[in-house]
Amino acid sequence: MIIYESKLEGTQNQYERLDEAIRTGRFVRNSIIRSWMDGQIKNRNDAYAYCKVLSDNPEFPWANQLNSMARQAHAERAWASIERFYRNCKAKIPGKKGFPKFKKYQVRDSIEYKTSGWKLSEDRRYLIFTDGFSAGSFKLWGSRDLHFYLLNQIKRVRVVRRHDGYSAQFLIDHQREENKELTGRQIGLDLGLNHFYTDNFGEKVDNPRFLRKDERKIKRLQRRLSKTEKRSKNRTKARNKLGRAHLKGSRRRNDWVCKLAQRVIQSNDLVAIENLRVRNMVKNHCLAKSISDAAWYRFREWLEYFGVVYGVPVIAVNPRYTSQNCSNCGQKVVKTLSTRTHRCPHCGYIADRDENAAINILKEALKQWANTMGRIEFQVSGEIPLCLSLETKASKGTQRKRKPKK
Ligand SMILES: [Zn+2]
User: Fold this and answer.
1) What is the Cα–Cα distance from 116 to 71, expressed in whole angstroms?
2) For residue range 287-341, what is the model confidence (pLDDT) as tens digits?
3) Which end of the chain is more exposed for a tag (fewer CB within 10 A), N or C?
4) Which pLDDT belongs to residue 373?
5) Is 29 strand, coil or helix?
6) Is residue 282 pLDDT above 60, yes or no?
7) What pLDDT does residue 377 have?
8) What is the pLDDT of residues 14-26, one digit of tens each?
9) What is the spatial distance between Cα 133 and Cα 187, in angstroms, rounded to a whole number?
10) Please, are residues 93 and 86 in contact by the beta-carbon 8 Å criterion?
């Protein structure tokens, strides 16, 4: 599945119709959450059926205006959040289980259509909405060409509202595959605050300059927002400005991180990274930290995406002890955060702290890879490989209880 995004150009009046559609999508979602809480909805089919109840109710004329498949798409969203809650409860994860919440108004919101309620113009430069809100036709602005794909490959169309306007995302059913030469290189990446990452060869990639610049700008706008009076016009203006600054910053980061991830994947045959927990990342209030956390998270998403495209495994490992253990002899060498060099008293190995961690990450990933992936294929094949008969002659013979009969 790939996603193409184009900006939507229309009139103020048309945008207001889109707002109504977005509000209705939220209404459908919240109504379903509500009747799930009341015990009326117990499974996904109930949620689908409830769309009909909503659209037949004369009290909610807007529900009927929304395209029926779009209603369903939002029922799916509601059910997905309920299901996530059930799953978390079942898995007994510690802390909050993510009880479904009602969604409030936010600038960043979207409405999702499936295969009806919209159409493309003959030349595919305009997107026309055909449901009850009759938002009309919008000019599409984007760098991508939709001509390359068949119409029935477009599985969904999402209208996204952000601080700087409206855009359409086309979800296209297409598996991207690229050919890659073997490079004979495997890489482990240690993510850090001082550098964006350090690899197991000791090479470092620095954070881009604009990161600090964006951070300063956002801080300034945040201060300005906090000085304005509540519910004043200036406050709305300041909030919009801040929203646009955040948006610009995140786009710039995403662009940088996407290109970096593609380069890493193209020049390696295996990539090992730390498994960062999103839950821990969201908690901190320091802006610089939260920005780089977000950038890493995106970086990992892109690595995994390009990994599939180029056929390069991306393995995430538990970051525990990767910075403490010695990558040469495996002994634990306790270091404070300010100790930048790893000096092992057991084997005398000296290396940069982050480089040592990156080597540990790569080693751990290879171990994981051998333990899971290799074994699955082994079991699936079902045949006794030749090497086993060789191994029984060695001292490991006791591992196999029954020897194959000749
Ligand atoms: Zn050592």
Assistant:
1) 11
2) 777 777 788 888 999 999 999 999 999 999 988 878 889 999 988 888 887 888 9
3) C
4) 65
5) helix
6) no
7) 52
8) 999 999 999 999 9
9) 52
10) no
CA distances from 22 to 17, 25, 103, 369 (A): 9, 5, 12, 44
Domain extent listing, the chain: 2-172, 186-206+244-386
Q: 186-206+244-386: which CATH architecture? A: 2-Layer Sandwich (3.30)
What does the pLDDT read at residue 335?
85
The strand ranges marked E within 204-360 are 204-205, 270-274, 314-317, 341-343, 350-352
Residues with CB under 5 A from ligand 1 (ion): 326, 328-329, 344, 346-347, 349
Whether the CA torsion 358, 361, 365, 367 is positive or negative: it is: positive
Q: Which of 157, 85, 151 is nearest to 117 (CA)?
A: 157
Q: How far is CA 346 from CA 321, 332, 333, 350, 363, in A?
A: 17, 9, 9, 11, 19
Cα(319) to centroid(ligand 1), Å? 19
Angle ∠(275,278,282) on CA atoms, nearest 5: 145
User: Residue 397 has what DSSP assignment?
Assistant: G
Q: Which two tokens stand for residue 80?
A: 């997905």
In terms of Cα–Cα distance, which of 365, 271, 371 is closest to 327? 365
Q: What is the pLDDT of residues 170-188, one digit of tens each?
A: 988 888 888 899 999 999 9
Sign of the CA dihedral with 4 first, then 9, 12, and 18 last: negative
Distance 198 CA to ligand 1 centre (A): 20
Q: Decide if pLDDT at 269 tops 90.
A: yes
Q: Report the mean per-residue pLDDT for the chain.
A: 85
Residue 333 C-alpha to ligand 1 middle, in angstroms? Answer: 8
What's the gap in Å between 197 CA and the centre of ligand 1?
Answer: 23
Tell me how far apart the alpha carbons of residues 291 and 213 are, in angstroms, rounded to a whole number.
12
Kindly calculate the radius of gyration of the chain based on its CA atoms and give it in whole angstroms: 26
Residue found under tokens 């079942």: 90
Amino acid residing at 321 = Y
Q: How far apart are CA 347 and CA 364, in angstroms?
A: 20
CB-count exposure of residue 322 (10 Å: 0-12, 13-18, 19+): buried
Dihedral angle over CA of 59, 62, 67, 72, nearest 10: -60
387-393: average pLDDT: 42
Ligand 1 center–CA 15 separation, angstroms? 63
